[in-house]
Amino acid sequence: MDFCKYYDFEYEEIHRYLANKNIGRVLLQFPEGLQPCIDNVVDELKRRFPDIEFYISTNPSYGSCLVDEYSAREIGAQLIIHFGHYEYPGYRPSIDVLYIGVKRLNIDIQTIGRILDDICGEKNISKLCLATTAQHIKDIYMVIDRVERCKIFIKGTIYGCIPLNPDNCDAIVIISGGKFHCISQSLALLSMNPKPRIFCIDPYIQSVIDPEPEVEKILRTRMWKMFQASNAKKWLIVTGFYGQYRENIVKKLVEKLKSLGKEYRVVKSLRFDREILANIDAEHNYDAIVVTSCPYIAFDLKDYGKPVLTVGEAFMVLENNFSSYRYPW
């Protein structure tokens, strides 16, 4: 498939890992965007390792917080090869995992370097921090030598639900396709004072995105959702699996709801979406919904009939404290 030729599935890295191990069965896990390449990858791995059985997981793989441990145990796999992400901080799967970032090929490093140098030329920017997704993490180390007008700090791989540490940053640059990582980091840094400037570079079209206008629009929506939830009596708490099961957060929410005399239910879901909400008739059974698994879900369900909140937003409502926006937890 032509699409797949633009990605490096790092077969040599996989070969080095498997060559000296006695492994008979492996589970392969891909995010949806890379699943069209499954056949290509399996063909190449079978050519290199004809004695290994390769199984494929099509369960959700939005990030490395969702390593498919259950499927691996069910089939007796000794290893999971997780494509498209690197290890999620604070989550260690119960089965050995090899993380393959799947580098995106043919990115114009020279143009990105020029864009970064232009950003460095703006007023009061002498220390520039870079973060990116697994597909581009190797590229940003190649970019550093092309930037002459300020000092570069590499903040590493970016995650949509983990705020970057802005220490030593006059400005932060997020290199990522799409807007999700750019917007999420902008929201996470809102309460900082002083707040570093944020620039976002889409490496596929070599353009700089200013997240501020969209962040302001999102904040208006989020404030309205919190207002809708301010008098909620019955709450639905959504928790996830694996790295998306945040036991301490659920416990704190339950304790807070109990102290306020609120009713609540806790639902555990691997994939939480509109269909599940419809199945449990959430629009009629609950006044507010808080998603502890992934903050993006709350944004994706912004037009749902009842307010769907992130954890941080839920605590803002329950504590009646709207002095600063709290994202994600």
From TrEMBL:
GO biological process: protein histidyl modification to diphthamide
Pfam families given in the database record: Diphthamide_syn
Record pathway: Protein modification; peptidyl-diphthamide biosynthesis
Catalyzed chemical reaction(s): L-histidyl-[translation elongation factor 2] + S-adenosyl-L-methionine = 2-[(3S)-amino-3-carboxypropyl]-L-histidyl-[translation elongation factor 2] + S-methyl-5'-thioadenosine + H(+)
Domain of life: Archaea
Single GO MF descriptor: 2-(3-amino-3-carboxypropyl)histidine synthase activity
Keyword Iron-sulfur: yes
Keywords: 4Fe-4S, Iron, Iron-sulfur, Metal-binding, S-adenosyl-L-methionine, Transferase
Cofactor: [4Fe-4S] cluster
Keyword Signal set for record: no
InterPro entries given in the database record: DPH1/DPH2 (IPR016435), DPH1/DPH2_1 (IPR042263), DPH1/DPH2_2 (IPR042264), DPH1/DPH2_3 (IPR042265), DPH1/DPH2_euk_archaea (IPR035435)
Enzyme Commission number(s) of this protein: 2.5.1.108
NCBIfam families: diphth2_R
Family: Belongs to the DPH1/DPH2 family.
Functional description taken from the UniProt entry: Catalyzes the first step of diphthamide biosynthesis, i.e. the transfer of the 3-amino-3-carboxypropyl group from S-adenosyl-L-methionine (SAM) to the C2 position of the imidazole ring of the target histidine residue in translation elongation factor 2 (EF-2).
Protein name: 2-(3-amino-3-carboxypropyl)histidine synthase
